[in-house]
Every structure is written in C-alpha cells, then in structure tokens.
Fold this sequence. Notes:
This protein has seven helices and ten strands. The protein is α/β, with parallel strands linked by helices and about 230 residues long. The strands form two sheets. A six-stranded mixed β-sheet has the order 6-7-8-3-9-10, sandwiched between helices. It has a four-stranded antiparallel β-sheet with strand order 2-1-4-5, covered by helices on one side. The longest helix has 16 residues, at about 175-190.
Amino acid sequence: MITLKQVHKYYSVGKNKLHVLKGLDVDIQEGELVSIMGSSGSGKSTMLNILGILDDYDEGEYHLNNTLIQNLSAKKAAYYRNRFLGFVFQSFNLLSFKTAQENVALPLYYQKVGRRKRNKLAMEYLEMVGLSDRADHTPSELSGGQKQRVALARALISQPKVILADEPTGALDTQTTQEVMDIFKEVHRKGITVVIVTHENEIAEQTDRVIRLRDGIIESDKVKQEELTVKE
C-alpha cells in the first residue's frame, strides 16, 4: 500500500540545506496498524506529510497503491489525497461555524455529492463513532474527545484506503485517548491501513508495528509478535 525507497528530504535554512530525511526505506502493507515514533526533529512529521502528499521529497521514490507519487500538480495531488487518504490531526481542524454533521459531510461536498445523500452518510459515520446525538452541535459545544471523533468520522466518510493521524491523542486525557484509540483499532479491523505519528508509548504499544525515527533515519522497525494459543 505504501512504499518509500531511499527517500530524502532537504529544507533550505538561510544559505544552508538541512537534511531532514536521510534515505528512508519503508514498506507498509494494506491493513496494517503502524505507529511512527521519534523525538522532536526526528523527521516523523515530515515523513507523514510526504505520505499524505502534503509535501514533496527530493530524492527516492514514494509509491501509494502502486502509483508513483512524485512532482504532482496541485490538482493531481488533491485527486490522490481524496481517493486514497483520510487525515486526523491533533488540532482537529474542524470548521467552527459548521455543525458536527456538516463537518463530517464536508469531504463529500467537495466530491459533488448531493446534500441529502452526504447528510445521511454523515449521520451514519457520526453514529459509528458514537456521536449521532451531537450532530447539531458546533465544535465549541464539544469536548476534545468528541471533536477528535468528529474528525475521525470526517476522515472515514470518503472511504479512504489509508488513515494518517498526526498526534491524534496529544490534546486528550487518558480516558478519552483510549476511547479514540479503540475507534482507530475498530477502523483497522475493517481492513483500513492506519498510520499514527505519536510520541506516546501507550499509543505505540497498541499498534501492530512501531517505526522509530532518529535524526532522519529509521532507528528501528519492529512488528509485534502475537502470542499464538493452540487449542488442544
């Protein structure tokens, strides 16, 4: 589903070049639940922006669903984002003047889906995340956990192949964090690839695979070994 081959990324800082990603090789299969960890400046957010086609890279190759993602026009990048990807951010990125239902329906508005159909689907996805009773509330009337669940419903409504989440529980308390993670795991069980950038070990421990970045390189890439129980 996602393949990075020797991906490098540089940023210009004055007259100097900052080498942020230093030849990343990553292969994420369809249906995996993966966390990306690393301290501030390790390159994890840059990596997620490249995966999300929000930023370009300078060297190497990025394939998404066997399609080479490289030097795309803004229109083409938007096409691939809308077709394959759903995003969840720490800051929720909800429109303050729209209700929960309207926020969830927004991706379908841009896809030219009719009002009645997109509102009906938005209610179904709000119900999926346990918020159908908050459909008419604006973000200011919702708790942090409720906002994140609205954001997740919005990410899911266009039926993406991959959910990319950037510190999705960073602004939440422990109980709400677990509620949101339970929804991510439910989404994963439905076959959607989920990639979560996090600095929290408690989150990473609930994923099937942990990729750790340090100074722009992959320090470790570990798949959790499931304990097999044999019935006699």
